Known about the structure:
Helices cover 0% and strands 53% of the residues. By secondary structure, it is mostly beta strands. The chain has a 17-stranded parallel beta sheet that branches. The chain is globular.
Amino acid sequence: TTNTQMDIGAVTLTxxxxxxxxxxxxxxxxxxxxxxxxxxxxxxxGEAAGATINLTSMVAGAGGLTIRDAGGLVTIGDVGSASAxxxxxxxxxxxxxxxxxxxxxxxxxxxxxxxxxxxFADGQDVDIxxxxxxxxxxxxVTINSATFDAAGDTSFLNTGTVTLGxxxxxxxxxxxxxxxxxxxxxxxxxxxxxxxxTGTQMD
Length: 203
């Protein structure tokens, strides 16, 4: 659409697909349950404040999910529970909330506005089978999910805050994890649960 709201109910993808509402605060993007058929999905509501994105679910995530641009908060439901793929946050102006379970091969937070937060919601389960990556940007990462399992060596490069658990959560970074000693690191680290590595270094 051209700077206007788009509301799509349950939808089946027959090829790699993009939903784009232009670049205005009115360009809110609401997508229902996506049956991907293994195809990639890209969502873009532009840079203008207020242009939120809501995705109910995409349980077959093998084709990959990209948040290309969003001026408002992005809320994402169940992703990848039937088949996992790459999840990429290219740019978000007001943060991203994963409100349900997340299963992915890689999960990359390449860009989010400084001071905004990428949140893995309370009580959910997150499983990243290859790599969880962040970038040298001042956004926050909050992991409140009941479990969080990330393969590979995870280096928190974002320069905002990092929150690891909010009471009773179990986070496992199988290949190692660091919040210090890199070229950029978080300003503050909060821990409220159990943080594990699997025979690998933790800094």
